[in-house]
Amino acid sequence: MTATAVETPVAAAPRRGSGGRRVPKVVWLFLLVPAAVEIAMVFWPALNSFYLSLTKWNGLGAAEPVGLTNFRDLFSDEVFRGALKNNVIWAIGFGGLSVLGGLALAVTLNRPRRGIGLYRSAIYLPMVFSLAVTGLFWRVQYQPDGTINTLLGAVGLSGLERQWLADPTTALYAVLVAAVWRQVGYVMVLYLAGLKSTDPTLDDAAAVDGAGAWQRFRFVTWPQLRGVNTVVFAVTVIDSLRTFDIVWAMTQGGPYHSSELLSTYMFQQGFTFLNLGYASAIAVVIFALAIIFIITYLVRATKEEATA
Amino acid sequence: MVHSELSRRGFLAGLGGLGAATILGGCATGSSSGSNSSSTTLTLQSSLSDADPKAALTKVVADYPKTKVTLNTIAIESFRAQLPTYLNSGNPPDVLTWYAGSVARDYASKGFLLDVSDLWTGDGACAGFSPALKELSTATDGKQIFVPTSYYWWGLFYRKSAFQEWGVQPATTWDEFIKLCQTIKSKGVNPLTMGTGSTAWVASGWFDYLNLRVNGAEFHRDLLAGKHAFDGPEVKKVMEYYKQLLPFFDPKGRSYSWQDAVTPLTAKKAGMYLIGAFVSSALPADAVDDLDFFRVPIIDSTVPLAEEAPTDGYFASAKSHNPQGTKDLLTYLASPEAQQQFIKLSKSSNLPTSQKVDTSTFSPLVQKGIKHLNETKQITQFFNRDSSDELQTTADTALTKFLDKPQDVNAILAAWQASAKKVLSS
Q: Is residue B25 part of a domain?
């Protein structure tokens, strides 16, 4: 980009740009202060948690270095392994369902129709509630005498009634449904924006050539959504790994750790038991998972972009 | 505290302080008590964030004549998490609300707590308190480090009118109790309610009591201190008794919190609830007068009678800049007048620790509670207070699992022992 800019006849512009690079000192000062605050309050504590993960520390006195013991303990810790498994289920379930649901809704609601705005807002509405509120709301629905069991009973499916959040086989999925219910509207809005930026003439041309609705979506619309997909993927992975509040509000990881996620386990270890070293080790694992997912995806996405 | 004019220099100093705090390693590690307790002002850090107790303590503290006291009220979960940080900071709060027993002892063994032994001797404020309370307030080195100001009892709560309707009486022995449960069940009512959904710790109430009745208080304390195994024969016997109760629990209780589980009791859809006296705060006002309780039935009459009586109060920081002023404040908080005013204003069913408090104006239920505890030989508090919050979660996991799958009791106890061992050795 800069290369082409230099070749253009408007050479004055880049020169002015390079002249502008001699930034007044006061601007540097203004840049340095937020940078220092960022380093002191974000990066430095983050780095510290890497160090803490190699120690045993209860918040009192000096942290005692223990090498990789925390990580070794982690992988022999059944609760941690259960939480890791639940996180995988969560990432697939939460990511898959909210992306599929959001995309389907966006495609359905993309055509102008009467009252479409109402539908879109209705679906987006849950997003305005905080996750904790969503959790409390769904906890009421899941009560033994709550809406869900009442509905099941009313349509003659009382055999399916159960104590959704107290049953270890359903607790995680019950929370998952609540989380997807909220997330789906958000993903829908992202895809709606993406669909707006697709070229409708391509779609029309494909239709004239006799392509079916599915073919037009798969081969004409979908490739144009690549940019949005990157965003949706990153947002979904991060959201699913950082999921905490809704689980905490609904089950606190229970009954007996059956809906425990890495984040809830980390919180419990760190802030209820003050095993700060151990909790930091869990945090490091979460960080590693997030970064691996996102870096591999971004690398792939940029490669595709370069070859395309 | 820091509400003085916020000058730019002060602001920058604050920023520097924040930076220093983060350098120490993030939120939990920084000292977050910004209290600046000089010798003229004392700081009281309180975890009583519910409206009534908070207002009560505010009033009690405001009436303290000697020095100005700054009251910081912090929500209990943050308070619990930050407590080690408060005590360890360079400028700690002078007085803090918390629990007697093993929690206080644990902090005392780290040297964080002020020795208040002189309050317990001569004409000190706590000198007249019961020996059981003194024992709960004594550290392992024999010094007193805690000032108990109120406590409450546990019992099997029921509605008098409901028992009348069903034509049943409170039970005193285990066999009577099982018969009572069967009778109530035959009326189509769940004999017992218990909210173990979001408050799994409630399940420990029955565990504690059955252990106290079968094995006694001494064994119970030793068990929680790791001197006995959770998968040993004594605990297995306790679980045998627990198993007998399982058909009588309201099955929906496992989705309820302890407060939710009060609703069936109020509606007479459940018969009894083993819970602390704080249950009265969860009942509608008209049902409170109908509320009564009885002692958890005796299983083995050779075992000395023990009851749970969680004890609340204050301890002081060893690093207080004004130890004498701090002790004066504690003396005031422990005084009969302050206790009486606090209990009255906080509208709780708590009992005063001072025997000089005039209890004649208290409700009949509370008077019965006082008698209930006076009759017992030994006092324990509750699972978490007698051990730690971390050991409590091992109990929560084991006991809620047991409620679901009683046939797996041996595997559950073995897993409990393994996780308890890990907690106790860490």
A: no
The answer to whether the Cβ–Cβ distance between A272 and B389 falls below 8 Å is yes
Residues B404 and B276 in one domain: yes
The answer to whether B397 contacts A257, with C-beta atoms less than 8 Å apart, is: yes
| A53 at B interface, C-beta within 8 A | no
In a domain? residue B201: yes
Q: What is the pLDDT of residue B256?
A: 87
Number of domains composing chain B: 2
Measured over the CA atoms of residue B6, residue B25, residue B83 and residue A60, the dihedral's sign is: negative
Q: Are residues B297 and B400 in the same domain?
A: yes
- Per-residue tokens: B70: 């700054």
Distances (CA, A) of A22 to A17, A19, A27, A29: 9, 6, 10, 14
Chain pair A-B, CB pairs under 8 angstroms:
85
Question: Which is higher by pLDDT, A234 or B405?
Answer: B405
Cα dihedral B309, B314, B318, B324 sign: negative
CATH (domain of A114): 1.10.3720.10
State the residue range of the domain holding A178.
67-307
B18 interfaces chain A, CB cutoff of 8 Å: yes
Together in a domain, B206 and B270:
yes
Shortest CA gap A270–chain B (Å) = 9
Q: Would you say residue B18 lies in a domain? A: no
pLDDT in tens, B321-331: 888 989 999 99
- Find the domain containing B220 and state its range: 154-308+379-425
Q: Which residues of A touch B106 (CB under 8 A)?
A: none
CATH number at residue B241: 3.40.190.10
ipTM: 0.72
Residue A280 burial (CB < 10 Å; 0-12/13-18/19+)?
buried
Of residues A59, A256, A272, nearest to B397 (C-beta):
A256
Q: Does B265 score more than 50 pLDDT?
A: yes
Residue A60 in contact with partner chain B when CB distance is under 8 A: yes
A262 is a domain residue:
yes
Q: Establish if A90 belongs to a structural domain.
A: yes
pLDDT tens digits, one per residue of B344-384: 888 778 888 888 888 788 888 888 888 888 888 888 889 98
What per-residue confidence (pLDDT) applies to B133?
86
Please judge whether B26 and A45 are an interchain contact, meaning their C-beta atoms are less than 8 angstroms apart: yes
Question: What's this model's pTM, rounded to 2 decimal places?
Answer: 0.77
Selecting from A59, A143, A254 the residue whose C-beta is nearest the C-beta of B84 gives: A59
Judgement on whether residues B304 and B206 belong to the same structural domain of the protein? yes
Cβ of residue A296 closer than 8 Å to a chain B Cβ = no
Instruction: Average the pLDDT over B106-120 and give the result.
Output: 89
Least confident among A283-297, B11-25, B139-153: B11-25
Separation between Cα atoms, residue A234 and residue A35, nearest integer Å: 25
A-proximal residues of B, 59-98, CB under 8 Å: 80-81, 84-85, 87-88
Burial tier of B87 (Cβ tally within 10 Å: 0-12, 13-18, 19+): buried
Pairwise CB contact (< 8 Å): B404 & A61: no
Residues B413 and B292 in one domain: yes
Two tokens, residue B372: 């209930």
Q: Are residues A4 and A144 in the same domain?
A: no
Regarding whether A74 and A21 lie in a shared domain, the answer is no
Which pair of structure tokens corresponds to residue B51? 């409206």
